[in-house]
Amino acid sequence: MSRKLKLVVGIVTACAVITAFFFFSRGKEDSFADKYSDTPNLDVDVGGIGRDNTYAKYLEAHSQAAYPEKEVEVAITDYTKGEDVEVLKDYEGEPEVLYTGENSYTEWQIDVPETGMYQIFMEYYTVKARGVDIERKFYINGELPFLGADALSFTRLWKNEEEVKRDNQGNDIRPTQVDEQAWTGAYFKDDLGYFIKPYQFYLEKGRNTIGLEAINEPAVIKSITLEGIKEDLTYEQYSENIAGTAETEEALNYKLIIQGEASTLRSSPSLYPLYDRSSPITQPYSVSKIRLNMIGGNAWRVPGQWIEWDFEVPSDGYYNITLKARQNYNRGFVSNRSVYIDGNIPFEDLEQVGFRYSNKWNSYTLSDTQNNAYQFYLDKGKHTIRMEVTLGDMGNILNEMQDSVYRLNSMYRKILVLTGTTPDKYRDYKIDKVYPEIIESMDLESKRLYKMVDDIVAYSGEKANQVASIQTLAKQLEDFVKKPEKIPVGFAAFKLNISAMGTSILTLSEAPLDIDYITVTGTKEKPDKVKESFFSRAVHEVKSFYASFTTDYNAVGDVYKDSDAIQVWILSGRDQSTILKAMIDDTFTPEKGIKVNVKLVEAGTLLNAIIAGKGPDVVISAGQGEPVNYALRSAVEDISQFTDYQEVLKDFYPSAYAPYRFEGGIYALPETQNFNVLFYRKDILEELELQVPDTWEDLIAMLPTIQQNNMSVAIPSTERTLNNSSNPDLSTFFALLYQNGGVIYDEEGKTALIDSEQGSKAFETFTKLFTQYKLPTIYDFANLFRSGQMPIGIADYNTFNTLVVFAPEIRGLWDFTVIPGTVREDGSIDRSCHTTGLCTMLLKQEDEVTKNNSWEFMKWWVSADTQVRFGQEMESVMGASARYATANVEAFKQLSWSKSQLDVLDEQWQWTVGLREVAGGYYTQRHITNAIRKVLNKNEDPRETLLDYTTTINQEIEKKRLEFGLTVR
User: Fold this and answer.
1) By CB distance 3.0 to 4.6 Å, which of 213, 643, 795, 956 could disulfide with 722?
2) pLDDT tens digit string along 928-943?
3) Burial class (CB in 10 A: 0-12, 13-18, 19+), 897
4) Cα 352 from Cα 350, distance rounded (Å)
5) 465-482 and 487-508 helices, crossing angle to 10°
6) What is the pLDDT of residue 816?
7) CA-only gyration radius of the chain, Å
8) How many CB atoms are located within 10 Å of the residue 40 CB?
9) 661 contacts: CB under 8 Å, gap ≥ 6
10) What's the N-to-C CA distance of the chain in angstroms?
11) Mean pLDDT of all residues in the chain?
């Protein structure tokens, strides 16, 4: 054998050995059963780490309870306690029902015939209100039975307001979603979707009380029924229960295509018709125009959301149902749907119908594991198909993951008390001796996590990215148990891994799906084949390429060539511009007869366009400092010239338009308004025996207790803001300044007064929070609040929406309230706070008609009705995290906040103070930031530093006023 051949053989042999080793080692690692198989019970809690009030624990505690068959009807109008309730006669076809308001509490006495577990079904009428889901707390004998009963959610009914229309460019216009008031019903279920079936409630025989407390939205209740829990039917049992019938040829050969976008009812306004131009086989199809040809998408991902379609069959008989669907969102995972026919799931196989990942549209006939199509018996006439998002078997895993994150954060906080956030890696803290229960908990939790990895892989068929964080944590805990002295070294990574696992819960709990159409066929008829050929794909791509040169994809809605059309530029996003234009075309233009063109532009292009004489008439979503900057250059109109401007401003707090006042004029209308509130962890404050701080003195007094436990408090600083912006956040300094009676500028805006006695006091208090009390200047509030390391923090109120979505494992354990205040001489508390926002400007106009038409548009845009609709549409498109921060007070009250949340926000809102804009005002915040950094980083004297920088600020203000021909001191 030649030397060259030997070399080749050697390389091949080595590769074979390596491949075999990889294969066999991978096979072993694919299952971690050996890690946890020797532990018979993984559900025990160690050292009090864990929650006792979960639904899983509740079921475990009542695992031996019976399942009675008898139903118990609650006498709805015969309540024993009632607040904000009213009996209604002859209401919507019902002789007697009960209205329950948004502040209601209702209690009923019931006689339970047999001890056991019951499901509860409620029929209700969706009263028109703010358009969010109805939420209630449920009590049994005066107590919440488990975590989850405090957040029961009942969906509303949504539909298209009108048929789909087209703009003058040939594009379909998304129809507005309206809240349909009608009778509907739902079981008491887990609103997170971790438990597929309705909640089971334990009730003992005899007299009991049940109560409903309103959290959100009013509702009219028709009936509440306690039902016995029945076994689900199999498909065989379902088939046997159906009476046979002689089918007609019409039924046997029937085929009906129900377009997905033609759904009749939906549980959320975000489930509106969508368009897809990526495939040549979507119906209807257009390569360049918007055709609303599908439904679902990423918005249809939250457990409990449903879409319903109406259809008719020509005669009694058996029918097959086929779905043309696509799940190209979560690789390696299954999007599940429960399928309801005429309001019921016919048999257990339809509780979770899975759709695996695929980039292409596929045909899914509802069938068994052997691909035998299910036959549904349908009477002649109208029927409904409803598809509801469900997590399926993944729900149990996610519930375990959520509990695990809670336990891991508890472990983290306990170790944190001993080691601090940055432990000395060379010190042996003897954690296994100080906290032996933590090491035991880590050992058990590691095994639980390994089992979760196996369960997810068994469910999905592969290891996806989301599994990596769980496996990493399991290995890390395993190493900590073997070598506790290594915990300080890996402590920071431990926290990050917990956060990563929490994020994985969010990803794994989402189940998006697209539906193009549904086909109902007789048993002799076949649905159309769904196949995208190479030729059709090639033609589609060529057409798409050509269309990119001929179609203006930046055009929004109707585009007018008329010279009298108003030109409106919006500086936010495409979703906002699309919604705005649709509202203009269906409301403003028909009502006022004024044509409007909307263009989405980058904020940086505005100034150049105005200088070039190509600017718009109206600018929407401009920054707070822009109106005065343009006013200095006579490039924007003073709205106080209009006779009705004061009437328009009545809808806003003065703080909203204070930044747009300059030299006796007002140069913009408020659009949005943001301000801070105080977030706090109820569970941790209770553990530490602390109260929510009412004043800054209270907050400072509780800092030693918080810091002794190696926790901290979040105060916005100059290093970063809590909304992940790189801009310095001076909101807390300004709040302290206002609360101490100080102001930033004199009455005429000629001089900065932050060096006053009040300003100096506020500056010293603010800087001491970081220099003396060592609060952090750089932090990730959402993650630290979630872990408990920051149980208190001041942040923009919109952080609430982030936390609701981002941290489901601490649901019910936190809240928000007004910020700490300063005690006045009369004993009252001043809670003044800083506010910011966006605005709408009217640029300088030579033509009076255009000016007046633009003013009409601006009034319409900031009006309550328009802002409410825009906010609701924004939330329906982008979800709760995009809740609109409208500055219009009446509009704000009609958005999706609960009554208790509105009360807090309204109280804090009344204390807001708007920052005046002056010539050279950009120097003010810049040099206050510099002053704070100098004190924090160089330990300079606060008062002297502030005085020096105030002089610099006033020099720039004077310089700018001279530059623009304004009077100086």
Assistant:
1) 795
2) 999 999 999 898 999 9
3) buried
4) 5
5) 150
6) 96
7) 32
8) 7
9) 667, 916
10) 101
11) 88
